[in-house]
Amino acid sequence: MERPQADLEVTVAEQSWMDAWQKRDMEACAHLLADEFQLVSARSGELFGKEKWLALANVAFVCRNFSFDEVQVQTYGNIAIAHCLYRQQGTAWGRDWSGLFRITDVWIWRENRWQAVTRHSTQIEVSPHEHPH
Q1: What is the C-alpha to C-alpha distance for residues 102 and 47, in angstroms, rounded to an integer?
Q2: Domain-by-domain residue ranges, the chain?
């Protein structure tokens, strides 16, 4: 079934997901992620499932601020693909993880909401370290 507002809905879901992550609202994050969610890490190329991502997002990853420079959404019935240009200032395991990223997210319309099923991210620009040490 086509959703006429799918591009807008998915753009809002992208923002909601990163808002929830920044606020460490893991319940909201979990609601946006499908049970079979997988993420390919921009850092290591490792594959993280939903539970592992939620655990790391709550402890190891810290987002100080973020913004989407661009979100392009293509829909195919109940599937949507979002290509995002995303900036963040943050840390992973205490080390700087700031910069510009290209993110590809796949969303599925299920249980009357958009759920992310996979994310692949690539860091394309590293910010200068805020602390030289």
Answers
A1: 17
A2: 6-126
Mean pLDDT along residues 6-20: 96
- pTM, entire model: 0.90
pLDDT beyond 70 at 36: yes
Contact 37, 50 (CB under 8 A): yes
Rounded (5°) CA angle 31-48-108 = 40
Dump pLDDT digits (tens) for 55-84.
999 999 899 999 999 999 999 999 999 999
Cα 28 to Cα 20, 118, 131, distances in angstroms: 6, 17, 32
Which pLDDT does position 33 carry in this prediction? 98
Distance CA 94, CA 19 (A): 20
Name the architecture of domain 6-126: Roll (3.10)
